[in-house]
Amino acid sequence: xxxxxVDVAIIGGGPGGLALAQGLKKNGIDTAVFERDPIxxxxxxxxxxxxxxxxxxxLQANLPPHLFQAFLDTLGLAPTENLVLxxxxxxxxxxxxxxGEPEDxxxxxxxxxxxxxQILLSGLDGVFHTGKRFExxxxxxxxxxxxxxxxxxxxxxxxxxxxxxxxxxxxxxLLPDLKSIDxxxxxxxxxxxxxxxxxxxxxxxxxxxxxxxxPRDGRGLMITSHRVDPSAYARHDFIGTEDPGHADIPGxxxxxxxxxxxxxxxxxxDELGPDDVLETLDGAALLEALLGRIGHWDARILxxxxxxxxxxxxxxxxxxxxxxxxxxxxxxxxxxxxxxAMTYFRALGGNTALYDAGLLVRELVAAxxxxxxxxxxxxxxxNAMREHGYEAVRSSLSAMQxxxxxxxxxxxxxxx
Length: 416
Ligand SMILES: Cc1cc2nc3c(=O)[nH]c(=O)nc-3n(C[C@H](O)[C@H](O)[C@H](O)COP(=O)(O)OP(=O)(O)OC[C@H]3O[C@@H](n4cnc5c(N)ncnc54)[C@H](O)[C@@H]3O)c2cc1C
Known about the structure:
Blueprint: E1 5-11, H1 15-26, E2 31-34, E3 48-52, H2 53-62, H3 65-74, E4 76-77, E5 82-85, E6 91-92, E7 105-112, H4 113-121, E8 128-129, E9 134-139, E10 145-149, E11 154-162, H5 169-174, E12 180-193, H6 194-199, H7 204-207, E13 210-213, E14 221-226, H8 230-234, E15 260-268, H9 275-278, H10 283-294, H11 299-306, E16 314-321, E17 332-334, H12 337-340, H13 349-369, H14 374-404
Parallel strand pairs: 1-2, 1-11, 2-8, 5-13, 11-17
Antiparallel strand pairs: 3-7, 4-7, 5-6, 9-10, 10-11, 12-15, 12-16, 13-14, 14-15
The structure holds flavin-adenine dinucleotide (FAD).
């Protein structure tokens, strides 16, 4: 039996891989996405993502107009005003630690990851394949690549794109020495529906603003909201509604049609408890661990934390890639978190993955339509991707230091 062939094989159906597939399809370039998981139910999928202009531009360039319109129409709304309070609920001047770096974020635009995925998957029937866990690749004498999957199948391609996230198996083979780093920062987050917040009498200062709690000592707490408009969903078929893949998962976490307020906080290693203990705790117990640290804070803040839905609370170790790797271009390349995973501070990772997709589409169109040598196209993509991607990794690490380390410097983070 001959091995199937596709011009561009994409490993991983996250925002980066799917945006790439949309852009290639829009430009008539033969492509296929190979994704391991039939549904996406990793913890962060239950949250919104902050969107930046570079992400919006990439979506506009790569989506067909009706899907870009669906993206705009179904965007959630975040509060437009910021507020800083101390732990006794006194308002502070926002003498915040601004980065001085260019800001292209849209504070009021709040993208549900579930909705974004629904949009990015639209029209990819026959292109998007699930149950395909990539294992390894081999380069053939004719410079094509053969990608092997754990179900025993394989695909041959002119270009293999590893868009398989921070733990990328494609990167492990291409750049075996590149390791992820543990920043030592430990994150907790949780959500409460706006209806529940109203029932519990949560202060509007915590639901109508992007509120930062900046205590005199200890670590801060960030609070914001995501408001959805079901009438916008109704205009776009299933986009923005519940995802059937999440129907059997109990709790509110993957509910995609209800407005909510959410908070997140970050600590240094061991401040909330040892990792091996925290990793075994459920949402309710994690809330107790957090309340053990902030139990002396104003009751209005504690009410929000205490009444958060435990199904939405989880513990996360914050990791980063080491920026700076270079390699010789060939028929295998990388995109998004697979090459430049970064901390969530500054909300850059997903936007950078979308931006990468736009860069690679542009280069592949130049190669497939306008005679640019294919290897030069990959090389130009990689140079541009490395420049802005590594810059984003560095920027997210400095933002983490400024945010979490404001009162007490972080122990573990080596200077990069
Ligand atoms: C807490 C948190 C908050 C964040 N907030 C923001 C934000 O506000 N704004 C922002 O821009 N970014 C944010 N990010 C970063 C953002 O989530 C990532 O940068 C983004 O998801 C990267 O997209 P990607 O497509 O490169 O990879 P991923 O989203 O990781 O997708 C990779 C895909 O590859 C699949 N896969 C993995 N291995 C294999 C394999 N062997 N075979 C086949 N498929 C495989 C996975 O199942 C997955 O679907 C945040 C991250 C975290 C952790």
